Every structure is written in C-alpha cells, then in structure tokens.
Amino acid sequence: MTQMVKISADFFSHASEKIRVNHKHLRHLWGRPRGSIAFVVGLIVFLFILDRAFPLNTNVPYSSVVLAADSTMLHAFLSRDDKWRLYTELREITPDLRRAILQKEDRYFYDHPGINPVALIRAAVRNSTTGRRTSGASTITMQTVRLLEPRPRTYASKAIEFVRALQLEMHCSKDEILQLYLNLIPYGSNIEGLKSASWLYFGKPLTLLSLAEITTLTIIPNRPSSLRLGQNNAYIVQERNRFLERYRTRHAFSNATIDDAIAEPLTARRRAAPALAPHASRRLRAENPDAPVIYSTLNPATQVAAEQLVSNYVNRVRAIGIQNAAVVVVDNQTLNILAYIGSANFGDVQDGGQVDGVRAVRSPGSALKPLLYGLAFDAGIITPKSRLNDVPTNFGGYEPENYDRQFNGPVSAEFALANSLNIPAVKLLHEIGPSALVSVLEKAGFATVKKQKKALGLSMVLGGCGVTLNEMTRLYAGFANGGKIGELTLVQKPDLPATTQLLSPEATFLVTNTLRQLVRPDLPNNFDNSYHLPRIAWKTGTSYGRRDAWSIGYNQRFTIGVWVGNFSGVGVPALSGANTATPLLFQLFNTLDYNAPNAWFRPPAGLAKRQICPESGDVPGEFCTGQAVDYQIMGVSAARRCQHRKVVFTNAAATLSYCPHCLPTATGTALKPGQAPNPVRRTYPNLAPELIAYYETQRIPYEKIPPHNPACEQIPATGGPLIISPNSGSAYFVDARQPAALQVACQVGNDVQAVYWYLNNRLYRKAKPAEAVFVTLRPGRYKISCADDRGRSSDVVITVLAL
After folding, report:
1. Burial code of 324-339, b = ≥16 C-beta within 10 A, e = fewer?
2. What are phi and psi of 395, to 5 degrees?
3. From edge to edge, which strands make up the β-sheet containing 293-295?
4. Which whole-number Å values give the CA distances from 548 to 328, 364, 376, 429, 723, in the listed order?
5. Given the DSSP bridges, would you call strands 409-412 and 607-612 parallel, antiparallel or unpaired?
6. Is there a catalytic annotation at residue 366?
7. Is the pTM of this model over 0.85?
8. Among residues 493, 471, 475, 495, which one has the least CA distance to residue 485?
9. How far apart are CA 280 and CA 343, in angstroms?
C-alpha cells in the first residue's frame, strides 16, 4: 500500500461495536465456544494491528458535478484519472434501487460482517464437485474491495479480499459501503458508477430511474463487453427480463411492477455529459477542487433563457463586428447569482469564447458615475436639482469632453447623471477627491482598482480604471439594497452574505430615482421592444475607443449586468452602451421579470422635500422669483442661500457700474472724485468665470454687468483673471528647430472688457477675455502673466524643454 489514510482515534471502540453487532452471526455459524471472549479480543487486536499496518484507502477521485439550485445537474467534469465517476449521494439511493442491487448481488448484505460464510461453503462445494467455477461467494463489501484494489483472480487475492472486507466493515457503515460500491461499478470504457451510467446512458438522475432501467444497469457490469448499451439493446432486454423474472420468483417486487418493467422498451444510448453554464461551472470547480458535488445558486430556467438571449443577440450584432457578450443575473434579496454567462458561445475560437467575461478586467466607461453622485449626495455637496456647469474646464492639464463633444451650460445634478455628462462628474470628483472614490471602491471589493489606486486620478470616473462585470453588478445590487453591498454568491450557503453600508439609504434612493428616468440619451433609439420598457433603474457606459459597452439595471427583485464587446479588445465604431448593451438588458428584464409586481423603491425616512430656487438648486434667497421642490437629506444636505444674482449699482442708463467707493455717502452730499451721482440699484446674474468664458466663446447672449466706472480710483481687490492654460509648474516639450505654438487662456468676471498678456514681465499683446491667444516659446523658463482692464493680475511659471 503506497497511500496512507488517517485512522480515527476511536477506531478500537468502533471495531468492538462492529464485532458486537455481528457476534450473533458468529454464534450462528460456529456455535458458542467457551473461549469466545478470548477469540473476540484476539480478533480485535489482530485486526487493529493489521489495520494500522495496511490501511485501506477509500479516497477515490470523483468527477466534479455542478448542480443547479433545484439540484438538477448543470455540468460534469472528468475525474483526475479521466473517468466519468459521478458521486452518488445516500439520498439518491432509492428503495427500489437498493432492493434491486441487493437481490442481485448480496441478499444478506446487512446481515454479514463483510464475508458470507454460508456462501463461501456453498461456492467451495459446488466448484470442487464440478471442477469449474459455477458459484461465486463475493459480497458487496468484497466486490468494493476488489474495485478499490484490483488484483489477479487467485486464491491468495481472495484471502486478502476477505481481510480487507472485514477491515472496510470496521471503518464504514453498511450504507457507506453500498454507496462506495455504487460509485465504483464499472460500465466499460471510462464510465464508472451507477450515477454516471444513469446520466450517460439514460440522461436522468438515479432518483428517476424505473425498475427496468435499474435492472438494466445492474446487469451490465457482469459482462460489459457483450452487454453494450446502445449497440446490443435487444440482447440486453432479454437478460434484463430474465433477471426481472428472478425478482418475481423471490417476491422482491409486485407482479404488476415487474410486468410493467418487462414491457418497457430500452432506449439507452451513449449521451454527452451535461455541460450547461460552462463558465460558472469551471469557476466553481476551480474554487472547489476537492468537492465531488457543488451546489450552485444558478436557476436552470433563468440560465437557459439568458444563454439563449445572449446567443441570439450576438448573432444579430456580429455583422457590425461585435463578437461577444457577458451577463450576470442576481437575486437582490439573497445576492445569489441566478444566471452566469461568460461569453456568447463557449466553443467560439474566433474571439475567445472560453474567456470568462464576467471576471475579465475591462474599462467601465461612465458606469461608475452613480456611485460618485451618491457620495456627493452623502457629503452634502449637491442635491438632485443643484446646478452644475457643463462647460469646458481644465483640471490641472486634464480637459475632459462629453461623449457627444457638446456642452450644455448650467444643468441640474440629476440631469447631469441621467445624461451621463462627463465634465460635471469630473468636477464632483475633483471636489470630493479621487482618493475618496478609490477608498469606497476598495470597500466595495474592486480588486483591480485596489492594485491601481496609486495611479488613479480624475479620469477614473470616465473609465480610467479596471473593473469586472461581477464587481459592477455587485455594486448596482448594492443600490437595489439601500446602499448595502455584499459578495455575490455562486455556491449555496445557509446564511445570507454579510453586507457593508457603502452609501446611505437616502443617497441611494436619490441615485435610483435619477436612473429610472426614461427621457435620456442612453435610451436605445433602435430598441426592438420599445412597446414595453421595463420599469428599472439603469446606467450605461462606453469605454474609450468603443471597446466596451455596459448596461446595468435593477429593480426590487433583480440586478442584471450586461457587457458587450470583443475579448480581443478591438473597438467597434457602432459600439455604445445605449445602443449595443441596453437592448439586451431590456430583453433580459422583459423575459425574466415581465409580469412582476410594479412595486418600486420608497423614499427612506431621512429624506425630506424643500423649496429651492430652480436657478441654483439652493434655498431661495432675496432675488428668487420662482420656486421648485427638491429632495434633501436631513442634517446632511447643505442649506446655502441662493446667490444666483447679485446687487450692482449702475448709472441710470445702465452703461456703467459702481463699486462702494464710487457711491456718495449720503443723499445731497458733495461728490468726491470718481463718485457717481444718482446710482441705481440693480441685480445681475452672479456667473462663474468659467460660465462667462463659455458664453463668450459660444456667443451665447447673457445679461452682462456694465463696465466699472472709469473715473473710480479704487481697483477691486477680487475678481482677477484666472489663468487656465498653461498650468503653473508644468513642463512642455517642443522641437527646438520648429517650436510649436502654446495657447494661453484665462477666465475673468463679466465686468472685464480686455486682458493683457505678459511674457517674463514684458507685454505680449492685448486681447478680449475669451479670445484664443497663442505664443511661440523656445526652451527656457517663462513667467506668463495676465492682467485685466482693472489692474488685477495673476501669474504662472512654466518650463519649456527641447525634445
């Protein structure tokens, strides 16, 4: 024996119990000798020593079997020794199966200690009188030993089997021995075990086998070469019926049952092993390499329906260069994965069909924006109707653009999220800080983000990081569960998974309420099923280069994540989250949840409504004429007074504005130099410099503050130019022989009419505030200054290097 097995500490007591249980059989066979006690003790000691010296190895390598949530078989794998050896569980041994096996192989299995002395004597007498082997004496226990340790058919081997049988009986219960025997019965080729034969020849589990099928499988191991299922079925039927008649003679089954079995046709043939959910099954097998049976959470009906939808959909879009898709369907209540599709076709060799798209690292595009907005809601920075400026903005050299390369000016936060605008999202991330978003993503279990965190910046919210479909679906399932995120479950577990509060329920509801809107650009314009839009909250994403299309949606019951693209990484011009991934998402929801109740998420107790100014989203101030209603998180959302307009004193014609220094101290008082007579109090929009620059560049009319009184001697201390290009402290590389032009730009208040650009304190040129100015610089260090027409200025220092 080359392999050793662990001997349990209570072996001695267990062996004693075995002998005590079977002692009546010994008394029946050999009487009750006076030295029976000594005999028993000696036998126990002998067997204990023998067992320790030559342990019996019952560790058999089984095929891995993946079961669905309803215990139907999804996938089976060859064992490590390339056998179809499916593990038979005790609950699968039905009474009919047990009775049929015992009647054929060992009627006294539960009565003998592993060896049947009566059968031994009978076989010895018959074989000696006839001169040939006419009767066998092997019990099921002895046959099991022979299957575990094959030996030549000799008397010495038989003697070893006797001892091994007793040894096996001492270690295992009768049911365990029967179970082991059923797992090892040979059926020819590489098929072993009754369960393997049941699936590979009849395509059904043991519990559904009829008596005729059970009898068929019990007689095959005696002559596997001549009784070959699918080839000699007619001859097998004759042998089967012969054994059925023997069962009738022994009254093992009722006559009616046997008559039905005899009349049953035999349709057995060699079938392929079940191979559903290949990506999920391979993942489960890799994660549970020693488990013969893996109980998955997959719902077979949901899995099959999703696989068919994905396959059909990819077949339609393959004409435009899209080869693959991946889908995950999650039960929000339990976080069980109900369907797991890693690719459109596991056998596809053109675009890596065996790649698991659920776990492949891809760029998320804009699909992380809902989490960012949720963090901003929780930080009190914004509410759904807060105004954000969607205008060209430079973030330290990073200038994001919207997907359509257009700008929308001031928009509400909910509009920015629903329309997936890039610049407002980057502004929010800039205010919150990339490290805060990275920290939350780490908390949510984003493994690649954790590895990349030192290199991640503002671009991460637009897809500049690596995520998987499994991680993204888990995140959105957290939105469906009030901000609580937990590990998605692929293996059945008795308890619900632990969860972590990622966002507050209030912020999560605000995100969900925004993502449910249907007036959105990511509503597919060619959606096949537009007559029935599912009631879901969803978000799309398209990665840079149009390599990845995402659409992830959820309602109260399910969260479904969809990725569409090519595993090769080749971009497709027609690829987009809206028009490529969302149609498949809608089809999945309409198929899996079409008749679901229309219950929707309710606002949590911490949310309240308040009056706001629609111009800013802030609490109405002095100059707010209209009002709207917005949600606020109690005790969290900022309660700023609206300042979308400000007071400006002008002359009667509104052609000049005055600062406090220009105004008279009292009516009728003599005017000081530069003071204005009869100033008029007016209000003007309080616009950010970036918005003014956008209006000027796009030639959008807006209400301007008149120029400041030129006679005033006071220069305002604030409101100076903000240089947005180039970036202070940056290094720029140029070709020394043909230096390229560098653009300089600034943002100023709307009371500025002209700006003055300086290079190393020397005037370069005068320009309008929104005018594009270019300078040609050779290698060196430069101080670039910008001054407005009121004398306010700002500087940046850059370095120009030669390539």
Report:
1. bbbbbbbbbebbbbbb
2. -105, 80
3. 73-76, 65-67, 293-295
4. 16, 7, 26, 23, 36
5. unpaired
6. yes
7. no
8. 475
9. 11
Strand order in the sheet with 731-734: 731-734, 793-802, 780-788, 755-759, 762-767
Rounded to 5, what percent of the chain is helix, strand, coil? 35, 20, 45
* CA-angle at 239, arms to 233 and 241, nearest 5°: 100
Q: How confident is the model at residue 47 (pLDDT cuts 50, 70, 90)?
A: low
- The answer to whether the CB of 165 falls within 8 A of the CB of 70 is no
Q: Which residue has the tokens 């809902």?
A: 370
Q: Which contacts of 130-136 are long-range, i.e. CB under 8 A and separated by 24 or more positions?
A: none
Query: Which amino acid type is present at position 206?
Result: L
From the candidates 64, 79, 92, 105, which is the catalytic residue?
105
Say if CB 304 and CB 73 are below 8 A apart.
no
DSSP 415-452: HHHHTT-HHHHHHHHHHH-HHHHHHHHHHTT-HHHHHH
> What does each C-alpha distance from 121 to 116, 128, 154, 198, 354 come to in angstroms?
9, 11, 17, 35, 59
Q: Which tokens belong to 112?
A: 């003998």
Burial of 460 (0-12, 13-18, 19+ CB in 10 A): buried
Tokens of 294: 């893996």
Distance CA 675, CA 691 (A): 31
Token pair belonging to 541: 């994403």
- What phi-psi label fits residue 193: left (phi over 0), alpha (psi between -120 and 50 degrees) or beta? left
Cβ-contact 591, 312 below 8 angstroms: no
The answer on pLDDT for 531 being more than 80 is no
**H-assigned helices in 54-184:** 95-105, 117-130, 140-148, 155-171, 174-184
**CB atoms near residue 27 (< 10 Å):** 12
Give dist(CA 353, CA 323) in Å, integer: 9
- The strand pairing partners of 776, in sequence order, are 741
Collapsing DSSP to helix, strand or coil, 588 comes out as helix
Active-site residue among 366, 386, 420, 616? 366
Does position 10 have pLDDT exceeding 50, yes or no?
Answer: no
| Element at 690 (helix H, strand E) | helix 689-698
The amino acid present at 580, given as its one-letter code, is T
Closest CA to 289 of 64, 57, 73: 64
Cβ neighbours of residue 223 closer than 8 Å, sequence gap 6 or more: none
Supply the DSSP symbol for 345. -
DSSP letter (8 states) at residue 231: T
> Which residue from 770, 738, 662 is spatially nearest to 707, judged by alpha carbons?
662
669 contacts: CB under 8 Å, gap ≥ 6: none
Termini Cα distance of the chain: 74
Whether the CB-CB separation of 286 and 317 falls below 8 Å is answered with no
For helices 174-184 and 140-148, give the axis angle rounded to 10 degrees.
50
Q: Within 10 Å of residue 224's Cβ, how many Cβ atoms?
A: 15
Q: Are 560 and 585 in contact (CB under 8 A)?
A: yes
β-bridge mates for residue 395, sequence order: 398
- Predicted local confidence at residue 746, as pLDDT: 85
Give CA 410 to chain center in angstroms. Answer: 36
Q: Is 690 a catalytic residue?
A: no
SS3 679: coil
Q: Which amino acid is at 793?
A: S
- Express each pLDDT in 618-628 by its tens digit: 999 888 888 89
- Tell me the C-alpha distance between 548 and 674, whole Å: 63
- Tokens 């059925």 sit on residue: 244
Q: How many CB atoms lie within 10 A of CB 309?
A: 20
Q: Render pLDDT for 76-130 as a digit per residue (tens, 0 to 9).
A: 999 999 999 999 999 999 999 999 999 988 889 998 988 888 777 776 677 666 6
> Token match 């899209």: residue?
322
CA R_g for the chain: 40
Pairing of the two strands 558-565 and 324-331: antiparallel
**Alpha helix (H) residue ranges in 334-383:** 369-378
